[in-house]
Each structure stands twice: as structure tokens, then as C-alpha cells.
Write a structure and sequence with these properties.
homodimer, 319 residues, alpha/beta, Nucleotidyltransferase, domain 5, 2 domains, 10 helices, 39% helix
Chain lengths: 319, 319
């Protein structure tokens, strides 16, 4: 068992982490994603791996595996990768990269790698059954039980952001109306706040963002307004927590996780979001669940996905 | 690998099945459950096993395992069994029965054994990811993935009947208000119909069940009235399907099952229940799930639990 690399390949940046054989993160790098072609992006990924090895003075022969997490769909049978924000459209990423760097490569969905990393090395450490949810641009989940990452039929497990509810009025990028991720995500928080302001909300947020500036609003601004005392901004987080609880409540009864880890931009809001969320989940569940269930933020910060993809490749390719 | 026995130990009857080493059901027996004491019930179970062996002319030495499914909670760590409708209160059933019949014994929750049996030998055969729900006196679920029965933290997975919704007005036996199983179950169907009749519904059901007879109403009577043309009776099943879909929709997005198997008294109603259920689930899910998901009744009839417990013991104790 040698050194491992984990990579988080996003539409904006590639973050690469080099790990020792003991699983310790030794060094990481961050650079803009090359999006000109699949060939050039693959070459960039190989180069980034080599650069980290050189900087840490590790020979290529001592690298054993590379694991990649990316925002896309990976066909479990064919290994073909399709990712809307990357130049990958039915590309066998793992196989191509293996040819470029000479070690086995795994490619998995980025949310799954984040949750897998948290389950093994973060907030899920020491637990057997971990449900993870990320609330960023979109919303998705992953389920890890006894160290096994669940893929589901067709590899489709985890798309909880695309459940449609009649009381959610927004069109989703997926083509459906009322998808959960149109409200339960960083962009969903912004959308709710913009709608509220257009409907005549008054307060700090309205003062700070007059009509001509509303396009620039971010979920962080909504949180900041709440933190400074804007009641409407607080309601946005409460309502978001309530919508999320519709999925979490049945999930707890169905699977009995030890812990639900909720990460991403919205979760960073902290108590204004986690407080109501824990309340909504608790009041709808049998006390047996309530008493033991933890709902927690991630503990590895931005590195969850690096840990996850590095460990996933090591576990999967070496065993 | 020798003969196996599967037992379904209910509050009313014990059904015992003898299976060949090839997993074929050779013979079954059904008898009233002895409820005088744990000792006497355990002796009955041992006697029932011996009787089946004698009738089939199989020597006791060729019996390899006994598997039991019962309506109760089994502590996964201690093996202690507690079942409200059986004389078991913190009783180490598997260990005691092993002493009486001399072969290894497993004890699991009956709903899990039903779903496990269906997953291996019934409607889930050939699939990897199976979600099972039973709608009888109560409501519960089980999840089998790649042949592994999921227990969850504290062994608590599957109590989906005890999710409380604000628009469900009934008190549940568990002490909470608004539990799903107060409406999504055979007794829930009866309760909804009785409430409707009290509120002045007219039609076949009202004609057949005047006020002084309403206590005798069964879910089968509601189905019969629907089948004979009573519109209100049909609405009870549609509403029940709608309530159930609140749990099934998130479950599909979370786990991507190949098939959802729905058994028990309510499911026996057939199209009036499965039709709306499939519609509600489909219209709230992304097309990727819709296109591949099956929602099906069980295919082993009353024997699902026998197959499940026999197979479970054999798989678990011999491997």
C-alpha cells in the first residue's frame, strides 16, 4: 500500500490531495479547471498528480491509486462519465487517466465522495450508518452503511433534490416543476429571498439590496442579514429546513442512520438552519429514533471530497 | 447443508415450513399460538419442528437450521426478544430454542423476514435493491440490498408507520398523534371508512353497515363496496395511496430500489390501490427513476415469511 491521490474536479477548480499510506493528507493544490476538451482536462489531471508527487519528493512508483470525485453521472457498468459543467460526455475517464499516469483510477460522483470521506474520516467516523446531504448549487445525498457506499439501481441513488412538491412553485433545471433543490440549496435560498423582496419584504436585506442589485444577492448575504437581525431572512432558513425535513424524516424511519451529515453552503448558516431542522425531524419521529439520531455539519471542511475519493480508490482497487 | 425450517410466529397462529437443502418448500403446518408462557411457547415451537420432520420422514440429524420471524423487537446485540402479542419480554428466544432442538436458530422481525423472502424467492428475485412494505394491522418496511438485510442503528430501521403528519388526526397505539399507520394499514382503512360513514357518507357501504354494525367493518368490506361501485370506498384507497407515497417518493430518490414490494391486507385491494400509488410516485419523481421503478405485490402469498426466515437462518448460520 503506497501513496494515494484524491481529486475534487469541479466546474471551476480542481483540488488535488496527496495522502500517505496511513491516510494522512500531506499536501494539496488548487487550480482552475481546464475545460477546452476532455483530452486536455485529462492531461491536466495527470500533470497535477505528478506535480504533487514532485513537490513532496515521492517517486511515481510509490503512488498506488488515484480517486476522483466530479459533479456528473458515472455509468457503473461502462465507466462512461457525463458531466454538464466539464468537457466529459460519455468519456471513460478512469481508464483514460489510468493510461496517462499508470495507476488504477476510480471516478465517482462528487457528493458521494464528500459523504464517503465524512463517513470514514469526518463527522461519521466511528458510526456504521451515515446519511449525507449536500446543499450547494444543487442538492443530493449519499448513503454509507458499514463502509459500503450505496449506488442503487442504475447507479441512481441520491437524487433527492429532484423530488417535486406541489407547493414549490419554481421550475427546475431538470425540466420538472417544484423540485426540492429549487428551494433547498444555496441558489434556492437566494431565489426565496429575491421573491420575498419583490413581494415587498422590508428590513435589512431590502435596505442592502434595492431592486437593481438583487441579481447579486448570495445565500451568504441572506445569512448575514439574519445574523444582523433581519427576521425575514431567518424565515427563509426555517422554511428551507422544513422542506428538507420532508425527505429526512422518512429517511430516518426507513434506514435508521446513526448520523445525518449536512454540508454545503446552506448548512454553513449554522443554528438558524440546524435548529429548526432538528426540531422538525424530532417532532415527526418516534422517540426511539429521536433519542439516538445526530444531525451534524461535516468536520473535514473543504477536504471531505479529497479524503473520500482517495480512500474510495484505495479501498476499492487494492482489496 | 441439510434441511431447514422457517417459522412465522404470530399472535394468533404459528406457521411452520420445512424446506429441502435446495430451498424447496416441502410441507407446512399451521396451529394456534400457545401464549401461556415463554417456556410453553418455546416448547411448542420445538415440538412443531419435530412433528414436521416426522411427517416428512426426515431424521433430526439432517435438520441444519431454524429461522423464526415474529412481530417484535430483537435486540441485535443481546438477542433478547420483546413482542407485545407473544409471551416474550426480554427472552433470548434463539438461544433457548437452540437448546431445545439442537440446531442453530435465528430470530428476526416478521416484516423483515417477509421482505427478505420476497427479495430472494418472490417478486424481488433477480433484483439487487428491494424495498418492501407491509400494510396489515400496522405498517412497516424492510430494505434488502445485494442480499443483505438492513438493520440500521439500534436495529431500528423500517418503522415507517410511526412517522407523524399534521394532517392525520388519529392517535396511534405508540402514543404519538398522526402516525402514518393509523391510516395506511388495514385498520387505517377501516378507521377512515368508519369516520366517513359517521360524517354522513351515503352509498353501498352505508347501506351495508348501518350505525350499529360499523364496529364489524373490515378493510375487505371497504374493498368489496368499492368493487361493487361505491365511490367513497374507492376514495379511501386513493387517499391511503397518497399518504403512503409521501414515504415512498423520498425513499426512491434516496436509495433507487429496483422494485418496491407492497404486501399485506391493503395491498390485496389491487388496482384501486396500486393504480393511484404508481401515479403519485411517478408524478413526483425524476423520469430516470420513473422509467425503471417497479411497484409490485408479493408473489409468494402467505409463504413469504417462511421462505424468508428459512433462508435467513441458512445464509446467516452456515456461511
Amino acid at each position: 500500500m503506497g501513496y494515494r491521490i484524491g481529486m475534487d474536479v469541479g466546474g471551476t477548480n480542481v483540488v488535488t490531495g496527496l495522502f500517505g499510506a496511513d491516510g494522512k493528507l500531506l499536501r494539496k493544490s488548487k487550480t482552475r479547471t481546464v475545460k477546452t476538451s476532455s483530452q486536455e482536462l485529462l492531461q491536466q489531471l495527470a500533470d497535477l498528480c505528478r506535480e504533487l508527487l514532485i513537490v513532496e519528493n515521492v517517486s511515481e512508483q510509490r503512488l498506488s491509486t488515484v480517486g476522483i470525485g466530479l459533479p456528473g453521472f458515472i455509468n457503473a457498468e461502462t465507466g462512461l462519465v457525463t458531466a454538464a459543467n466539464l468537457p466529459f460526455n460519455d468519456i471513460p475517464v478512469a481508464e483514460r487517466l489510468r493510461q496517462l499516469i499508470g495507476v488504477p483510477v476510480t471516478v465517482e460522483n462528487d457528493v458521494r465522495m464528500i459523504v464517503y470521506g465524512e463517513s470514514l474520516r469526518g463527522a461519521g467516523q466511528g458510526f456504521s450508518h451515515i446519511l449525507g446531504v449536500t446543499l450547494g448549487t444543487g442538492m443530493a445525498s449519499a448513503w454509507v452503511t458499514n463502509g459500503h457506499l450505496h449506488g442503487g439501481a442504475g447507479g441512481l441513488a441520491g437524487e433527492i433534490g429532484h423530488i417535486a412538491y406541489p407547493d414549490i412553485p419554481y421550475m427546475c433545471g431538470c425540466g420538472m416543476k417544484g423540485c426540492l433543490e429549487t428551494v433547498v440549496s444555496a441558489s434556492g435560498i437566494v431565489r426565496q429571498a429575491q421573491d420575498g423582496l419583490s413581494a415587498g419584504w422590508v428590513g435589512l436585506l431590502a435596505d442592502r439590496f434595492p431592486a437593481h442589485m438583487r441579481e447579486e444577492l448570495t445565500s451568504k448575504d441572506v445569512w448575514q442579514a439574519y445574523d444582523d437581525g433581519d427576521a425575514f431572512a431567518g424565515q427563509v432558513f426555517q422554511r428551507t429546513a422544513n422542506w428538507l425535513s420532508r425527505v429526512l424524516i422518512p429517511s430516518v424511519a426507513l434506514l435508521s442512520p446513526d448520523v445525518i451529515i449536512i454540508g454545503g453552503g446552506v448548512a454553513a448558516a449554522g443554528d438558524v438552519f440546524f435548529g429548526p431542522l432538528r426540531k422538525y425531524v424530532a417532532e415527526s419521529l418516534h422517540p426511539l429514533y429521536r433519542e439516538r439520531l445526530l444531525v451534524a455539519p461535516p468536520s473535514l471542511g473543504d477536504d471531505s471530497g479529497l479524503y473520500g475519493s482517495a480512500e474510495y480508490a484505495a479501498k476499492r482497487l487494492i482489496s
